[in-house]
Amino acid sequence: DAGVTQSPTHLIKTRGQHVTLRCSPISGHKSVSWYQQVLGQGPQFIFQYYEKEERGRGNFPDRFSARQFPNYSSELNVNALLLGDSALYLCASSPRAGGKPEAFFGQGTRLTVV
Amino acid sequence: DQQVKQNSPSLSVQEGRISILNCDYTNSMFDYFLWYKKYPAEGPTFLISISSIKDKNEDGRFTVFLNKSAKHLSLHIVPSQPGDSAVYFCAASEYFAGSQGNLIFGKGTKLSVKP
Predict the structure, then answer these.
(1) Which pLDDT belongs to residue B101?
(2) CA distance A1 to chain B (A)
(3) Peptide bond into B79 cis (omega under 30)
(4) B49 interfaces chain A, CB cutoff of 8 Å
């Protein structure tokens, strides 16, 4: 069975540009969460979506947005990119919101802003 | 202020010996704790979890201990194998308090198991 898949795996963008990252959860999982991991830190929660609705939001500016589609896949969008947005962006899926917190992560998208 | 702290950035252990990774937390509302392992260029992989109603959970070579009064948990790996070399993250959640799936992670401890 396929795990969580993310695309692209690597991306280089220029300051001020916009980026869209994509995630497909494990089959049967309806909840998707996004995390940002900068070098030397642990992953930091950005969003959780369940049944196309936002269920949680971390301490990130409004430049960050996300959505979930009817097939439970998800997109993370970041506008007006800053150098500090350079990080590994991780998508995690779990069977449902409110279930056990064990989340299963994809391999991540490495975003570099220059 | 960090709510989940892993104060040892790195740990080196001989193959076959015990590895003990430590984690402290400050938020008394945390009631579910998880350990993840991460290899370079891969996403974190779930290892083992424990809820606040237990003080020990065991899965094969991995055991997690929780000391709620000290707000401390530890992961024991016995025996350690070279393939265990990775970065280990401790994470916490307010699961029973109605968390919306938000995991709070520590900074990680890099474990090196030497043959």
Answers:
(1) 67
(2) 16
(3) yes
(4) yes
